[in-house]
Write the structure tokens for this entry.
Amino acid sequence: MELLNEDQQLIADSATGFLRASHSITAFRALREAGDTANMAIRSELGEMGWMGIVVPEELGGLGLGYRAAGLIAEELGRNLTVSPFLSSAILAGTALASTGGAVAQNWAAKLAVGEAVLALAVDETAKHRPKRIATSVTGGADDLRLNGRKTYVVDGGFADRLIVTAKQGNDLCLLLIDPQAAGVTLMSQVMLDSRNAATVVFEDVAVREADVLAQGQAADTALSKTLAAGRAVVAAEQLGVAKAAADQTYDYLRTRKQFGVHIGQFQALQHRAADLYCALAQVSSLIATALNALDDDSADMETLTRAAKAKMARVGRQATEEGVQMHGGIGMTDEMDLGLFMKRDRALTEFLGDAGHHTEWILRQRGI
Amino acid sequence: MALDEFRSNTRDWLEANCPAEMRTPMGEDDICWGGHTFVFRSPAQKHWLKVMADKGWTVPAWPKAYGGGGLSGNEQKVLAEEMQRINARPPLQSFGIWMLGPALLQFGSEAQKCHYLPQIARGEIRWCQGYSEPGAGSDLAGLQTKGVDTGAYFEVTGQKIWTSYADQADWIFCLVRTEPDEKKHTGISFLLFDMQSEGVSTKPIKLISGASPFCETFFDAVKVPKDQIVGGRGQGWTIAKYLLTHEREMIGASDSALFAKSDLTEDAVAAIGLDETGRLDDPMLRAELGQFLVDEMCFDAHLEMTGAYMRAGHELGARSAELKYLGTELNKRRQSLRVVAGGSDDLVWEGTANDAGQVTKDWLRSKANTIEGGTSEVMLSILSKAVLKLPG
């Protein structure tokens, strides 16, 4: 029920065609078997199509098509469980670099936009997303800045060319560009439950050039807030694709599986659960699209809408994947079926950038209760 | 005319013509239903209806030839926004506008459109809807009220139930079995008749909220002229389904029109207070409120997107069941949270305190939302078959 403009429709159509043909769930299974969480081959393809620079402005070498378009790509990536640096690099790092500006940021934005470089965002320090809780610190004078701290759940951090790290200098927030190869950086690359990469990174007296301080103080607050808002909405869009794929496979199963001599889709108990899931997916699609539009319009309610979208999608994603397994019965528990893959990706995306509880709490505080 | 120009003209016109008394929040008693016996609450209410009807803006979407405003989808949205901007009350609400009108526009003869639609637009005739029967609720097509062809008339005999405001209505649109030898769904016709006809009687039903918005309606050999059939004989179910689609869109989309949307969080803070960390001093209610606020934003976004989709010329079809299901389930939650927030204060039933328990009465009334116009379960069955194409 979504109305798209011409550019957006083109993006949606090409995302559907390209990903289903070249980066489907079958391709994902092959990567998983090979233990490959980087999927290097897809980078140049996404770069050539302009997707890696979809939110990077044209003057910085990107397409500048915006977040609604990015959401359409993310939804299709979710449907196909495609492994790519789209979220970490194109959306999170792309938004951060475009928001901070400066020569270093422009240089990396241009590389990122064509798929030549991958950047990852390092914000979390605890098992739950709490971007304001920062123990990582920058100390010392302008010519001798030192970074100390530890970051966790750095998605795609295991193979990123640069990390964008949040740290405190006194009371000021800083966004720093850090080379993971630099002296004092210890990086533990991990394979997560959804067969994607995330790293835990420790910084011990890492030297930081002044030019690599992308933003600090108010400017850093603004850039981080836009980056996290963009990330939430696009993660939700990817999760929507995962949930829709799980739901579609489930509806298909209800139409074809027979028990007691009839299709199980004839049982009202299952029909009503399927239809309730359909309604939940329909309305959360609208909320996510609205949040993405708010990012494109830079509107005042972008913070609230992206949090609402992330919180709601966490609940609907869980419903879609849990109902999917249950309505499939025993076969849904097997690795041969895709339901488990959807459930794992859904779980990872729910934790990434904050779950329903985190964002609902923010909305409650905002309302003064 | 460019939309901006339409907006500025509309704004000026509303400013000049909407009386100040019609710009204040309205309760259920302030609704203008129109009809022969309707008593206006104020001269301003009567004036507001007249000037809006003269513009065709009681039914802005209908063609001008039938008393409407002939506005495009975008113009209707502008008018609604401009009315909302000054808190202008709807000048007229009725089942004629919501349900019969759209059915007549689609299925009525030219003569019927010219006769009935302008009366609806001007609020001259108040209509009620004769659908459900004691033995035909969710299984509506199983209705048994008979319409026997006597040559000159259909002679209608039977009983309807849950007829909204039948005791105050002037005319009824009614589903009647005129073709007893046809199958269940193809034996029904859609008849219009005067509630003053001989043989019609009504009896209000008292509900758990204490109010009686619904009636039992009895027909004993009521004579209905044969030109008062809409569409062909046996076409009643097709019309009924079309009309139910409109009803569901209306119920799903207009929870705010039926119920004052008070600020739930403000009500809760006022009644319960905050703890030392500034959070509502009831963690469980607070968590439920949090989920509700997110769900409300979600449904509002969905309504907005759906509205844009329909204004772009798309039909909603069976998906009206989706809005009906989501909107009414959400409203029930809203009303439940409201009474929980109010605590014992909202147990007051009679007297002047707490507006004589209006919050509690609204809560009880809202229980019907997921029953009337097709239950939530019927909505889910429709979606599973018409949209998801599940078998059987």
The domain at 3-93 of chain B is CATH 1.10.540 (Butyryl-Coa Dehydrogenase, subunit A; domain 1). Residues 189 and 235 of chain B are 6 Å apart (CA to CA). Chain B has three domains: 3-93, 127-234, 254-387.
